Amino acid sequence: MVTMIYSAPLDAKSHLPLDKATISSLDELRLPRAVYAAYLRPLRRAPQYGVPVCDLQLRSYSVRNLELFADTAMRAAYYLNLPAKGPVPLPRITERWTVPRANFIFKKSQENFERRTVRRLIQIQDGEPEVVRAWLGFLEKHQYHGVGMKANVWEWEELGCGKKMEEEAKAAAEETNGLWEGFGRRKLGPEEKVRELLNSEPFRRAMHGDAPMILPEKEGRGQEYKTPLHEVGRG
Amino acid sequence: MSVPRSRILDLAKVQCRIFSTIFNPEGLRLGNKVLRQRLKGPSVAAYYPRRVGTLKQLQKAYPGWETWDEKEEDRIEGLQVAKMRGKGAPKKKRTAAESKKLGKKKK
Amino acid sequence: MAQFRAKKLDLGCFVNVRNIRDHTKRKVFAEHEAERQALRYIIRNTSLSQRARAQAQLQLTQMHCYTRSTQIKNRCIMGGKGRGIMSDFNMGRYQFRINALAGNIPGVKKASW
């Protein structure tokens, strides 16, 4: 049972113990269910189909922080109506290093250091992608210190999603329309550079003064350069 | 039951188109493994920690706010003192003639 | 080389001529990596004409040595040492020991098993 803490009355008789009737009536009072649940192990929902939707891996160097945060994540999943499995303790990673104690020579006297990474896995089953995202967002917002998170998310599409995706891609391409041209870390990848180089003056001369090579336009949504360059080079 | 070679090649071609790989049935050396490699530059360049959180960066981030840079204030004060004593930096010479004149005077 | 060096010091770790130089090399390498890879691709592509490939070879050899990845060397971020660097922590072995004992490296403790 939960121990209750009575706030002492402020009057002069505060040192007097409460009479029995008051104590028993106070004991009968119970905490709200949601508060009471905080003292118990986290509740969980039963999955209907058991289709994995999200694997969340928590990593930390300290078990206490990790346990606390895993507990929080489980509770959050319960209140978001997400059936969650776990937290499954995964094998811990132990890394060890041995270094000489001295800064110079004396290899005979060394010291060992280690770092143990403890891990927990929480799997969400049968969740709506949107709710899962909300859950992940909540956890990210309330990150706990010293606990790292890594999530693998699987989303399931209904049949005939190919057509839908094509339409979406078309709409997105129209919307952005060159807006994202320079977006991303890789500004000029090797593929574009190859084209640029092969079209540059010294290379053109090296190719026996052939006309500048005409390179095929990029196809629709494929952002990566895919046309076989060796065919281009022959042209 | 044997399948004609052309049919298999067609299949390979379609496969390459779908999975965005290079169609190379003869196994020529096209050097594509170079293009497939990951660019190491960004991770290599991030080896040393960058200088962050300086007062100047803070000032830039919050232009309307007042910050106190002790070192900078000291430097400016020193410059003012030097100027008052007539030991400040000489005036910048704009033309060649100006700088020449000064040289002759000294002689 | 002076033309590559940042006009203003942008290092937040131990500063040393060699550290600055290595940092500069890293930045130059990152900048020119795409070009180098493109040239390497042209050199290796047997379907291109021999002359084009030779041209690419020439261009690659004429690039500045700072654009080469082999010029880069891991150095200690705490003391600038060039040898005995632990790549997990970017630190020399002695600096690693000092910092680990002081508790500055998260999770690293003295081990005994």
Automatic annotation (TrEMBL), chain A:
<dbReference type="GO" id="GO:0003735">
    <property type="term" value="F:structural constituent of ribosome"/>
</dbReference>
<dbReference type="InterPro" id="IPR036838">
    <property type="entry name" value="Ribosomal_uS10_dom_sf"/>
</dbReference>
<dbReference type="Pfam" id="PF00338">
    <property type="entry name" value="Ribosomal_S10"/>
</dbReference>
<keyword id="KW-0689">Ribosomal protein</keyword>
<dbReference type="InterPro" id="IPR001848">
    <property type="entry name" value="Ribosomal_uS10"/>
</dbReference>
<comment type="similarity">
    <text>Belongs to the universal ribosomal protein uS10 family.</text>
</comment>
<dbReference type="GO" id="GO:1990904">
    <property type="term" value="C:ribonucleoprotein complex"/>
</dbReference>
<dbReference type="GO" id="GO:0005840">
    <property type="term" value="C:ribosome"/>
</dbReference>
<dbReference type="InterPro" id="IPR027486">
    <property type="entry name" value="Ribosomal_uS10_dom"/>
</dbReference>
<feature type="region of interest" description="Disordered">
    <location>
        <begin position="208"/>
        <end position="235"/>
    </location>
</feature>
<protein>
    <recommendedName>
        <fullName>Small ribosomal subunit protein uS10m</fullName>
    </recommendedName>
</protein>
<feature type="domain" description="Small ribosomal subunit protein uS10">
    <location>
        <begin position="55"/>
        <end position="152"/>
    </location>
</feature>
<keyword id="KW-0687">Ribonucleoprotein</keyword>
<dbReference type="GO" id="GO:0006412">
    <property type="term" value="P:translation"/>
</dbReference>
<feature type="compositionally biased region" description="Basic and acidic residues">
    <location>
        <begin position="216"/>
        <end position="235"/>
    </location>
</feature>
UniProtKB/TrEMBL annotation, chain B:
<feature type="compositionally biased region" description="Basic residues">
    <location>
        <begin position="84"/>
        <end position="94"/>
    </location>
</feature>
<dbReference type="GO" id="GO:0005840">
    <property type="term" value="C:ribosome"/>
</dbReference>
<keyword id="KW-0687">Ribonucleoprotein</keyword>
<dbReference type="GO" id="GO:1990904">
    <property type="term" value="C:ribonucleoprotein complex"/>
</dbReference>
<protein>
    <recommendedName>
        <fullName>Small ribosomal subunit protein mS33</fullName>
    </recommendedName>
</protein>
<dbReference type="Pfam" id="PF08293">
    <property type="entry name" value="MRP-S33"/>
</dbReference>
<dbReference type="GO" id="GO:0005739">
    <property type="term" value="C:mitochondrion"/>
</dbReference>
<feature type="region of interest" description="Disordered">
    <location>
        <begin position="81"/>
        <end position="107"/>
    </location>
</feature>
<keyword id="KW-0496">Mitochondrion</keyword>
<dbReference type="InterPro" id="IPR013219">
    <property type="entry name" value="Ribosomal_mS33"/>
</dbReference>
<keyword id="KW-0689">Ribosomal protein</keyword>
<comment type="similarity">
    <text>Belongs to the mitochondrion-specific ribosomal protein mS33 family.</text>
</comment>
UniProtKB/TrEMBL annotation, chain C:
<keyword id="KW-0675">Receptor</keyword>
<dbReference type="GO" id="GO:0005763">
    <property type="term" value="C:mitochondrial small ribosomal subunit"/>
</dbReference>
<keyword id="KW-0689">Ribosomal protein</keyword>
<comment type="similarity">
    <text>Belongs to the universal ribosomal protein uS14 family.</text>
</comment>
<protein>
    <submittedName>
        <fullName>Glucocorticoid receptor-like (DNA-binding domain)</fullName>
    </submittedName>
</protein>
<keyword id="KW-0687">Ribonucleoprotein</keyword>
<dbReference type="GO" id="GO:0006412">
    <property type="term" value="P:translation"/>
</dbReference>
<dbReference type="Pfam" id="PF00253">
    <property type="entry name" value="Ribosomal_S14"/>
</dbReference>
<dbReference type="GO" id="GO:0003735">
    <property type="term" value="F:structural constituent of ribosome"/>
</dbReference>
<dbReference type="InterPro" id="IPR001209">
    <property type="entry name" value="Ribosomal_uS14"/>
</dbReference>
